[in-house]
Write a structure and sequence with these properties.
Blueprint: H1 11-16, H2 21-35, E1 43-55, E2 62-74, E3 79-85, H3 94-104, E4 112-119, E5 132-142, E6 145-158, E7 161-170, H4 181-184, E8 191-201
Length: 204
Amino acid sequence: MEIFIWDSIFPEFLRSIKINAMLKKLFILVLLVASVGAFGQGKFIAKNAYISFYSSTPMEDILGESNEAVTIMNAETGEIGFQALMTTFHFKRALMEEHFNENYMESAKFPKARFNGKIEGFSKDMLNAPVADIKITGKLNVHGVEKTITVPGTLGLENGQLVGTSKFKVTPENYGIAIPSLVRDKIGKEMEITVKATYLPFGQ
């Protein structure tokens, strides 16, 4: 989508700059905001969206969580952009986090996951209505592999705030994420992804 064209321009630069995760997040936010300038006033943003992935296994439940994802929604068209730095996911054990970044996600090579999509049947009335079920179709890019997906979600006012959520499953191997043979049979083939974002009008 045009509003996220910077993803095709800056990825190599983003991977090459030697800065910490906080500054990378700021850099992503600046580029994301600059790219949606064409939206005019009809933008909502969440700078600290929650995203997690979970898998229940015979060995140990795997849960990685981040509260540092960035998402912008076009209030005129229902288009949504979502980005998360892989190094912002945290686990209960440091070794699990190390394996996640170095062996599975190769975070140095593929520093972020992103989703660009659109709410099906979008109406601006959804932004001022109670929470209701929605469907979102778009392109999910993880580990350098991009696939078109349709996921369920909710959107609406919750305690006076505009909240969007989604819960869906992905298969790591579909995104080129190799699972070592020694643990392949002990790890779930699917990961459950949970997303929650509390949106504010852009500029607040």
